[in-house]
Amino acid sequence: MMCRHAVAWLSLLSLLAVGCNENFSSAKKKVVAVDSFILQDFCDSLLGSDIEVVFPVPPGVVPEDWSPSASDIAKFQQADLILLNGGNVSEWAEKASLPTAKVVKTWEGYQDKLIEIKTGVPHRHGDGPEHQHDGILGFTWFDGDLAKAQFEAVKEALIRIEPKLRERIEENYAEILTRLDNLYTGIEGALSTVKNLKYVGSHPNYHYLARRYGLNFEYVHWEPSVMPTAEQLEELKGMKPDVFVWEATPLPEADEAVKQLGIATFVITPVSGPVENSYWEKEMGNNRETMKNIYKYFKKQRELAAAATQNRPANRGKNEQQNEQNSGDDKAQEGSDAKAKDDGQAKSSENATQADKSNASDNAQDDDKTNESDKANEGGDGDGGL
Description:
Blueprint: H1 2-27, E1 30-34, H2 37-47, E2 51-54, H3 70-78, E3 81-84, E4 103-105, E5 116-117, E6 135-136, H4 144-161, H5 166-191, E7 198-201, H6 207-213, E8 216-219, H7 230-239, E9 243-246, H8 252-259, E10 264-267, H9 280-385
Parallel strand pairs: 1-2, 1-3, 3-4, 7-8, 7-9, 9-10
Antiparallel strand pairs: 5-6
């Protein structure tokens, strides 16, 4: 009897253990591996701590220059879902052996809108190897429409692996989509008034931004952490840009060297790689504020130019008035000098006349004295002759 009860208890404990194991298994988080900052942020925003997001690119490294190690690739292979950004951000994935059933190419919904560079310029980032950026560009999130299409692809992929969380995912998606609308509306509003400017980027990162918002962009290959050479500065000067866009905060002396050319400088980050203690949406918000500052800067320049134009006629009138006054003073002085000259000449003439009169009077007196003397002499001679 006791054995029978013991067997019953053992059976119950076994069932409870199996149930606990099943609950533990079902509570295990799904693992999602991503290859760009935006995909990491989208996953975190939609499900937060309910999933584990693997993004092995270290802070300060851009995915387009990142080469995964064997252990990094293993993390992707072992994940429940693999989200790839596409373009030059995901070039490594073309050579890696990834389970096709787990891979979602988030760009497939807008593949016809991707931009391809045929011939990139060879260059290097710091001490890294020489390379060039050609092929499909991956910075699609600079176009708000493409970013929202990618966000939808992430949402659908997460629902597929976590169907029980569909309602929560949909609610979060609607909320975040509203924030994205506000983000890109702000960008469009800021850039719509500065389309006539010429931009030069420190790297070819802004093709989608330029196409979406009608901006005139050209590119050089400068490192923000390296002082540009005299030749590079001369080349930039010849490009005649209004704005130079750094991809990261530059050396102060490098930034100042560009400003000395009469070129405004701003920092717009591509936001492809992870930023420590930050997230993609926040960094793109910072970019939006920078774009607003471009608008504010050139608005201020226009106001200063307009004020200078308005002040110029007033200053010219004031100068003309001063010149007229000076001319009048000169004429008055000339009249005064002429009068003084005339007065001097008149006085000299008067003095001469008086002198002539005095001389004439003296001469007359002398003549009278002479005549009287002659008469006296004549009288003396007559008496002596009698």
